Amino acid sequence: MKFAFFTPILLLASESGAWNHVSGTELLKRNGNEQTLIALAQALEQEWTAVQKTEGDKVVSVDCSAESKLCHESGVSSFPAIRLQQPSGKQIRYRGPRKAAAVQGFLHRTSRPTVSFVTPKNSSIFQSIDDVVFIGHFGTHDSHLQRQFETIAEKYRDRYSFATTSGTVRQGAPPTVECFNNPDSTKRSTSDFPTPSSLESFIKRCSTPTIPQMTRRNELSFYQTRQSIVHYFVRSDAEREAYVAEMRPLAKKYAEYLHFVTTDADEYADAAEMMGIKRGSSGGLSVQNPNNGDVFPYMRREKISAGVVEVFLGDIIQGKVKPWRPGGGHDEL
Ligand SMILES: *[C@@H]1O[C@H](CO)[C@@H](O)[C@H](O)[C@H]1NC(C)=O
User: Fold this and answer.
1) What span is annotated as the signal peptide, if there is one (predicted)?
2) Does 223 contact ligand 1 (Cβ within 6 A)?
3) Are residues 93 and 182 in the same domain?
4) Does one domain contain both 25 and 75?
5) Is 199 part of any domain?
6) Cα(178) to centroid(ligand 1), Å
7) Does residue 201 line the site of ligand 1, with CB under 6 A?
8) Which of 182, 207, 232 represents a domain boundary (last residue)?
């Protein structure tokens, strides 16, 4: 059997906190009835308590210092780990942020079928059921594409929600996949699937937020396109959310030329410094041209807003702002 896990340190946290650990045998007994979400952690405890409050006994944690064999057999290398255990005993791994809302989203989405069925009547409700939703419209001759859609849904079901309208589709219409990115208020659709990877590319393009978070894992993808990058370094989620809300229209307007990203100022303190942002400061904005290495940290007095940033970008393009040099200070014309 496979389960989830934490370090012995967490046992201490669990004795004093709101943890509601279950034993391995108890967990086994749950197989065959409801789905069970498993988690372990110390840093996670507050968020976890919030999840437990709304989800009740669908949510349990396992103490790996007491269930070491079980946890060892799971072969998981880092803690804490969150899994959805399906009635069959099969587990789905959670990869998202350690935040109550994100964990709840995961629980709800993975509790639905991998691909739901919708009709013209209820498809609009389904469109807003999750942050990112895909709806496939396939006719009787599109079974190959439909199978591809189902395979992709299996792969991404921990992150996005999927449905089809199979059987309700009008004859002769081309197969179409619609995408709803609700946080970004964008809707896309495609009937163009020239290669086997077309569908997955569409899934990726559509699910990428207008202003994503840059991390070590995805940074290359931004540099590869050679577009200039508008960095913003943040120290909290609230700061990130406020910035994204303010800049989203601007980022959409310039999406062809610029990547707007946010980056954790503490985790990537070195990167912030390389972009000309003083160590320890937050809310630093800097524009980077990956083609020649030029960086343009925002050092003007005005508070950062979409309007102010648009003017700053225009000044950079017109050569009114000189690139910043490490150690050489900063001069602006
Ligand atoms: C939409 O309606 C159909 C027909 O009533 C039903 O079978 C299906 O389960 C519904 N889908 C969702 C996601 O509620």
Assistant:
1) 1-24
2) no
3) no
4) yes
5) yes
6) 18
7) no
8) 207
For a ligand 1 pocket test, name from 108, 114, 122 the mutation site with the most ligand atoms within 8 angstroms of its C-beta. 122
- CATH classification of the domain holding 229: 3.40.30.10
With respect to residue 332, please indicate whether it lies within any of the assigned structural domains: no
Q: Report the predicted TM-score, pTM, of the whole model to 2 decimal places.
A: 0.76
166 domain residue, yes or no: yes
Name the pairing type of β-strands 59-62 and 132-137.
unpaired
What is the end-to-end Cα distance of the chain in Å, rounded? 66
Q: How many domains does the chain contain in total? A: 3
Q: Which residues constitute the domain of residue 92?
A: 9-110
Same domain, 183 and 274: no
- Tell whether 201 and 233 lie within a shared domain: no
Index of the ligand 1 atom closest to the CA of residue 129: 13
Nearest to 23 by CA among 45, 52, 1: 1
Q: Which atom of ligand 1 is nearest to the CA of 126?
A: 13
Helix (H) or strand (E) holding 161: strand 161-164
Do 103 and 123 lie in a common domain?
Answer: no
**Which atom of ligand 1 is least distant from the CA of 112?**
13
pLDDT in tens for each of the 333 residues of the chain? 233 322 222 222 233 334 556 665 665 565 544 555 554 444 567 788 888 888 877 777 777 777 777 666 665 556 677 878 777 767 788 888 778 888 889 988 988 999 999 998 899 999 999 999 999 999 888 889 999 999 999 999 999 999 999 766 666 789 999 999 999 999 999 999 999 899 999 999 999 999 999 988 888 888 888 899 999 999 988 899 999 999 999 999 999 999 999 999 988 988 999 999 987 776 799 999 999 999 999 999 899 999 999 999 999 999 999 999 876 555 544
Any ligand 1 atom below 6 A from CB of 122: yes
**Spacing, Cα 96 to ligand 1 middle (Å):** 28
Distance CA 172, CA 193 (A): 17
Boundary of a domain, candidates 110, 136, 158: 110
User: What length does the chain have?
Assistant: 333
Q: How far apart are CA 37 and CA 154, in angstroms?
A: 18
